[in-house]
Amino acid sequence: MTTEHTHILDAKIPDGPLEDKWTKRKFDVKLVNPSNRRKYDIIVVGTGLAGAGSAAALGELGYNVKAFTYNDSSRRAHSIAAQGGINATKNYPNDNDSVFRLFYDTVKGGDYRSREANVYRLAEVSDAIIDQTVAQGAPYGREYGGMLDNRSFGGAQVSRTFYARGQTGQQLLLTAYQALARQVGLGTVELFTRTEMVELVMKDGRAVGIVTRDLVTGEIESHSAHAVVLATGGYSNAYFLSTNAMNCNGTAVWRAHRKGALFANPSFTQIHPTCIPASDEHQSKLTLMSESLRNDGRIWVSKTPNDDRAANDIPEDERDYYLERQYPAFGNLVPRDVASRAAMRMVEDDKGVGPLKNGVYLDFADAISRLGRQVIEDRYGNLFEMYERITDENPYEVPMRIYPAPHYTMGGLWVDYNLETTIPGLFASGEANFSDHGANRLGASALMQGVADGYFVLPATISGYLANWLNVAPVPTDDEAFVETEQAVQDQIEKLLSINGTHSVDYFHRRLGKIMIAKCGMSRDREGLEWALEEIPKIKAEFWSDVKILGTNESLNQSLERAGRVVDFFELAELMVRDALQREESCGGHYRVEHQTEDGEAKRDDDNFAYVSAWEWRGEDSPPTLHKEELEFEYVALTQRSYK
Amino acid sequence: MTTKTRRLEVNRRSGWRSWLGPFFTSDIGMKWMMALTGAGLLAYVLVHMIGNMKIYLGAEDLDHYAEALKTLLYPIVPETGVLWLFRFGLLAMFGVHIWSAAVLTLRNRAARGKIRYEAKRQYSAVNYANRTMRWGGVIILLFVIFHIGDLTTGTFNSEFVSGSVYNNVIYSFERWYVALFYVAAQIALAFHIYHGAWSVFQSLGLSNPRYNDWRRWFAVAFALAILIGNSSIPIAVQFGLFTVSG
Amino acid sequence: MNITLRVWRQAGPDVEGGFETYEAKDISPEASFFEMLDEVNEMLNDEGVEPIAFDSDCREGICGTCGVMVDGHPHGPQSATASCQLHMRKFSDGDTITIEPWRAVAFPVLRDLIVDRQPFDEIIQAGGFISANIGAAPDSNIILVPKPAAESSMDAASCIGCAACVAACPNSAANLFTGAKIAHLNLLPQGSPERYHRTVAMVETMESFFGSCTNFGECEMACPKSISIDVIAWMNRDYVAAQWKNFRKQGQQ
Predict the structure, then answer these.
(1) Distance in Å, alpha carbon of C186 to nearest chain A alpha carbon
(2) What is the pTM of this model?
(3) Residue B2 C-alpha, separation from nearest chain A C-alpha, in angstroms
(4) ipTM surpassing 0.90, yes or no?
């Protein structure tokens, strides 16, 4: 299983000092002359922050762009649901922030499993993100003097987070959406809505286009281009219950993986600590509430297991404020992975709260008596309303109940410093790639990466590939490569529709999700992972013989859409498990029970596992091959994370 | 999905409309004109109501007031010159107001289409006043026509004597069905004003969160003033408060 | 709880539709409205009836994908709440619920409860942006924005583009949607260079698809983000000003 071909993983990191690498790359990359750019076609799949950002930026540069989204508008992408904010190193609050500090915090927060050069670049362009989005009309929170306001977020020791109430993701996505809309209006970008990419098309070892399905008419269509950009987000929906949108899926990246793109760190998934616990068996998704709630809320459970008293009936001295107890320095503000695992342990110890005993309390009583209800309402009013709508409980009077839920996937397609995958001509940006967050993502960093990749990195690096293809027309869509791929897509659809078994697509997806959250979720062990590895192919086989999908391909058919996505989730989930199994250490969101310190914290093994695991597809019947990209840390000393 | 766009088949810019310019043929422009003429008509209704109150001062005052209107600015302009100017102005305002309403109604019907909601729409902001703007407007128009025929030309009033405004009013309102119709029309007018006097700020773009509540009270007060002021006269006549003079 | 559903079913954009009645049995009051529909769909799928198609994505009330008419209420009877955030505890056991798609000529039904809201994108494409090329931005604190302006702008910017305003409007007008975007951008100093051009372009695109405003305020009540109809008044004002300014420029626009 561990055949190593490290030579194929060239990250193409520029030489020289860390702070000069990005400048150097922008200088030494081949350029495309402005008058030649219109000769290039580029496909961008996904129109969230990274996708809409790339499409708009490339359109502004003068390339011909085709952008695809399965949504009815590019304003719907799930970037919109990010609440808390976006980090940047402006240092407006004068509290010693710097590019290096953000870089350092992000590498440390990622538990030393990310690439130094990439992370430094992310921190470096973060200021430009704020400048750009302000100019595009993002209504960030401001001080009375008219200047931008900052807040501290996710346990950072500096206030570097810019925010637009609890809707920062919405406002940033809207700026990207509007920039894209402007390019559509100008004719540089052609936008295909309700159109899903179902396959990548390769010819002579490079990406030359995609095959799509029109979700309204069912039409299978080919699109060719000089380069393909995947900005299709993460794959948390492999868990079925996650905070991702209902339609988020891994099909685009998985299809690319099957065509030869290596998949990096698939087991690095993030479980977000402050979500609303599931209320019953039929729950369709979980709802996240901003981590900022932990700034003022205190997390506790009863000291007595199986305590059936209502929260307000439990006296103060019978409450266990376990985060404050275990981590006195950071208290309720420990990083996400630590907070999530602590909550999980409480529930495992029968101290869970709520009707299903599946949560912990997040209590604002202290904050309300200290600051007054009005202050709390100003800070979290919209979150409290949302909580009340969902649970019918008033968090001003009764403590909130929270529980961790799958939320973000740090893993993704392996990309080099230029965001190019191992398939020439195929790029990945945003959550779809693996590059910046290592084993754990810090709060307010996802938006940062989406905009950085979309607006600033990809448009700068893609010319290096495109320059090689000047005056070469894209492969025509009647080429054999396209025709064969279209046929394969048609075949899979027909096969799915012809099974006519007994259970719906969701039935199988839910079963997959249960295995994944139990065995490959917040904590993992060898036994469970090996069991999952046997179990997943069984469900997959059962799916292929017993799924029941009604209707036809030639109409709007949501069951068929989901089926195509779940097919890929089975294989992706299997790879997640495999990756978790081979990584015999605990780091960030990946917690192997066998590898913990005496007090139950994640224990890294830097000598043996300071690498990126990049998996190569070997066909459905043979296990994938693991490649390793060794990580080198020149600027950050590897230490054990401690938040005590 | 590549969609074909379904623009409404309302031609705004071509033919005879084009000389009006894009503003006055746009929905917002027409609504603006409607608001502006509505504001003018509101002012007129208010002045008219205040003038009506002269009836409580007696025949001499009212008849003198009517005469004064005819000789406004005389002899600088010919007798009844200003009056006719007002009349044409009013007619133009009426015309534009009604024309805009008719055009916008047709456009809105086209935008809404034929398929309606099956379940009864549970409106939360729509009320009797704003829902009846169109039919209420028609009632007001019919009333105005009758009112002119009744008290200006005397066509519908067999005992009409030009210049004897006080007597004409009493002769007319002594008929119970006329009094009833007047009061009914004033109620329709009050509803129209209740929505219109609030709406005018919105259409002209003069809304501001600071005085939005005040706008609502303004509309209520305006509507009530017109309703009480104007209706009091036929009611008073029915109760025999006034007697024919001279 | 047990619920009877009357649901609009329509196989495609060009075919006739009609209402079908389904029984939703043993629904948890804790379930969301769409989780109830998910369960009904499971049941239909088992019975060999094609599931009800409806749009829904984030289920957190922020993406704006969802939107159905529930018993004559856009997004259902709970105010300031998108369909996906509606919960079954707002209904009673034995209720009959009628579910319909948004109705407007500009929004043809694609299937069942799904409509095509493409015209909203076209309104934004006409001018719902600030032309700030990527890379060209000045430092973010160079242009100061008074806090009240930033807050009002944010109020308007919270629009999720769900189209409940159009669905609620007896005239199928999109003034609240368009006004909100115009207010968001026109209130900011960064948006002011294009203020008048933007207003005219967006209004004209809007009017080519939708009806006009009769100041009912029904849209405000239906809006899941409670955006005030003040934004419509401001749009009216800016549109008048814009036409006047363009007129003065003698054809420069």
Answers:
(1) 9
(2) 0.96
(3) 6
(4) yes
